[in-house]
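Quick illustration, no need to memorize.
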Amino acid sequence: MFAFFRHRRRQKLLAQPLPPAWREVLQRNVSIVQHLPADQRRRLEGIVQVLLAERRFEGCQGLAITDEIRVTIAGQAALMLLGEEGYYFDRVPSVLVYPTRYAREHAVGNAGPVEVDAELLGESWHRGSIILSWPAVLSGGRDPADGRNLVLHEFAHHLDGLDGEMGGTPPLASTQAHDHWRAVFDREYARLCDEVAAGQETLLDPYGTTSQAELFAVATECFFERPAELAVRHPELFACLQGFYKLDPRQWFAAGTRAAPPRMASGDAAAESRKRPGGSTRQLPPEDDEDGTLVPEDLPPLATADQYFTRGSEYLDLGRYELADADLSQAVRLAPQDVEARIELARVRLYLGRWESALETVERALRQAPDDDEARLLRAMCRAALGEYAAALDDFDRLAELPSDDIHAHYYRGLARVECGRIQEALADFSRVIALDPDDAEAWYERARCHDL
């Protein structure tokens, strides 16, 4: 149910018009946008707004993050989501942007760094963060047909790692699809390696011979920027990517779109400079908190109420209620008119056992939105937790139905019903809780108590 609020917020962002200044940035720095049909251009602008509201951008080595940087990166990444519904790079906690190429310490021994990699343009790391060089972002976005785009490349690595391993096979719908993908990529990888070894011209970046993970990333670049050529020269590979991204970018480009020169197997300094280590993307939390010891005081500050709302909702999903309380409280302080943020904050406080504070918070939400069923449901649960059973039942009865999978709602309605003498209905509620969670000892106890009454 928590995802309901995020979905509703995202639908609002998707429907909002893009600020004119941001649209100008897209036209200037994400040149593929000029080729998109009107409906997909509108969708891309909506995706950009979701990404800017939810993802964190950080400047490195003194680079100040501007709207131009944020919109340019989000616009290029949004191309990959035009066929997707529901995933907005949720597991990318931050995008780090450097003012130029950068060096990374590859290993650290007792006496300090023992190896330093060549200068890099970008990385996608197992903790989910994306690292980009701003000049490379600009050059990749402004040329829509050279088959090279750093943002597409690194975000492809992220998608590849969603199943826990960056091996060149992103999460797919079925075992059959997985097996077919592997067979195609095995053949394509062997073919690219043979062509590069023979010094032949290749459509795909020779850097794809590094690993199948890199083959997926460079193929993604080509799929979005040189789709017609990819479909002709690598039809099976194109079909795999078309099925995965649920798009056919060939439709975006006119027949006369210029093609970039083919890649040579040697002397490709740019490909060499893009070396990156492997890694895998782990699950949330949004911050680096693997041992679960992060406290509210340690949370890094964010820029907007939407960003606090998003991170707080993610902590709520994880059961990290103290952290969720801190972020959602800040979201409410920054945007006191935000009813959804108040509702989520009240939910957190209910789960923390701060029932009076939860009730006060949700009452304020209902004053702002008297007909909001989510707020009314939450008030009913708060009232039941406080022993105000008749008032709680009045709220429950005014709702058309409860979410079928909401354990808390059924449990608290069961409490209100049994205390108000509606035993058979209470039995049904506690039975529903047990069906959802057979280990819920309190529900077993309350159902037994109903049988004794």
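The two ends are 32 Å apart (CA to CA).
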